[in-house]
Amino acid sequence: VEAAPRIRRDIRPFVREARPLVRDLRPAARDLVGAEPGLTRSFTVLNRLFNMLANNPRGAEGPDVAGRDEGYLFSLGWLGHQSVNLFSNADAHGPQRTLTVGGTCAVLAGTLNTIKGDDDTALANTFLQGMSGVLTDPRVCGGKSG
């Protein structure tokens, strides 16, 4: 008895408006029924793939366990994190990759001395000037900047 006004006010108008759309769906539903065996096989294969990716036979293990195996989902999540981290720096020109500079103290000191005299490389000069503190730190390069 309580539902009758709501059915009359809300559900009946909705059903009347939806009937033409439902009639238009009939041919598409018929085609979908014909494609169903192929879809079932495809989703079964995908389900097996995802089960293999998610397989973690020993469950969650601490970092101190030798031969630890977290499965492929752990690696997939790590790969996604590293991919976002790799291109997380962006400006109007698009994403930029981060850069890691390495070398011996002598190589960095030589690069700094070479760039100091070149006015066209202001960005590199600014970057390497920040490195000069590392070069003069006695704990890192023995206090010798070359």
Describe the structure.
It is a single chain. Strand 1 and strand 2 form a beta hairpin. Helix 3 (105-116) packs across helix 4. It is built from 4 helices and 2 strands; from the N terminus they run H-H-E-E-H-H. It is mostly helical. It has a two-stranded antiparallel ribbon with strand order 1-2. It has helices at 3-54, 72-86, 105-116, 122-136, and strands at 89-91, 94-96.
Task: Summarize the SSE layout with pairings.
Blueprint: H1 3-54, H2 72-86, E1 89-91, E2 94-96, H3 105-116, H4 122-136
Antiparallel strand pairs: 1-2
Helix pairs in contact: 3-4
Which short descriptors sum up this protein?
146 residues, mainly alpha, two-stranded antiparallel ribbon, 4 helices, 4% strand
In short:
With 146 residues, the protein is mostly helical.
Oligomeric state as shown: single chain
Average pLDDT over all residues: 78
Which stretches are poorly predicted, pLDDT < 50 over at least 5 residues? none
Roughly how much helix do the residues carry, as a percent range? 55-70%
Distance between the termini: 93 Å
Please report the number of helical segments: 4
Radius of gyration: 32 Å
**Count of beta strands:** 2
Query: Largest beta sheet: what is the strand line-up?
Result: 1-2
| Class inferred from helices and paired strands | mainly alpha
Helix and strand sequence: HHEEHH
Strand content: under 5%
CA-based shape: elongated
Major sheet attributes: 2 strands, antiparallel
